[in-house]
Amino acid sequence: MRVSAALELPVRRPRAALAAAFVLSLALLAGIERLEVDSDIESMMVQGDADHAAFEAKKRVFGSDEIVSIALPYEDALSAEALAEQQRIAARLEAIPEIAEVDALATTDDIYGREESLEVERLVPEKAAALGPEQLTAIRARVEERPIWTGLLISRDRKTAALQVRLANDAQRSHERSVLMARIEAAVAAERNGAEVHIAGHPYMKTEIARTMQRDLARFLPATLFAMTLLVVVALGSLRLAAVLLGSALLAVAWTLGAMGWLGQPITALSNTAPTILFAIATAYLMHLIASYGHALAGGGTRPEVVLRALAEVRGPILLAGLTTAAGFGFVAVSKIPLVRDFGLDLCVGIAALLVVSCVGTPALLCLLPP
């Protein structure tokens, strides 16, 4: 079968073509549930880089580098009430299975020399709320003597205490990390009773980046759809043809997102823009097809004959434009930086989905449109 005859099959068998597109849609759209948001900064590192390999080796030896820093402002961070609250927050955090260790001034050990031995005892007794003035003065003196805690677990002005929370390696997926950060926030809020809290650190930053990416995607794609709808309706002068064009473009985007889910391709800070870019490209391709269809209508004939004339006019340019665009993104997909590579690969998949929609789904749909 000649290539041109194969490309004409969706027009000659439109119902079969739409049924196949429907089945393919069901299979691909199921992959959207598998999509993950990857905000890991390591995706920006060059694969095979010696420094990155050394960093990974360090983590295998010394454990996770996932540390969340929690700053708690006080009038006096070394008061009995403040130390007791730090102990309660640390206890709540240590009860979370995904947390490996919590380091706080109120729970840390004090190591000091005595004659020929080293003594280890808690800096702050377990029931800090019952400490008297003399004990608090002794604790304050030890903090002044040991500069290692200043800047790490307590501020220089003694008005802010910090908890350093080291995470286990269990919460690697974006959703799991987001849930864990929410549990940490809830544990701190339960003791602070509305008082000011500051949370920072690599894991928390990745969670905030993921939230921002999801929020941006929820904003950009609808805004693009709205703007494109206005422009397409004005350009075509037909709500029905505009619906065909925009529905086809959205289908190509949905297929791309589903394919990303099945391929294990996460949404990153860069590929977050891929749906919007693909939607704009799809609108341009399909606009030529719909415009050619409108011109072919003037020549009369059956609906399949009209669609075939329109396809004959624009099919070659659409395929050529799609292949050259995919080739351009294909060069991006060979980058050694995972963030850039995934972006190129996602758009290559998207262009392939768009070509299938443009040459199969949309022509078949145009054949079945009522007069």
Describe the structure concisely for a colleague.
This protein is of the alpha+beta class. The chain has helices spanning 3-12, 14-29, 50-62, 80-94, 133-145, 174-192, 202-236, 239-263, 274-297, 303-332, 338-367, and strands spanning 67-73, 99-104, 109-114, 117-122, 160-167, 198-201.
Overall description:
This protein is an alpha+beta fold and 371 residues long. The chain is 62% helix and 10% strand. The protein has helices at residues 3-12, 14-29, 50-62, 80-94, 133-145, 174-192, 202-236, 239-263, 274-297, 303-332, 338-367; strands at 67-73, 99-104, 109-114, 117-122, 160-167, 198-201. The strands form 2 sheets. A 4-stranded antiparallel beta sheet has the order 2-5-1-6. A two-stranded antiparallel sheet has the order 3-4. A hairpin with a 2-residue loop joins strand 3 (109-114) and strand 4 (117-122). The longest helix is centred in the middle third of the chain and has 35 residues, at 202-236. The two termini are 32 Å apart.
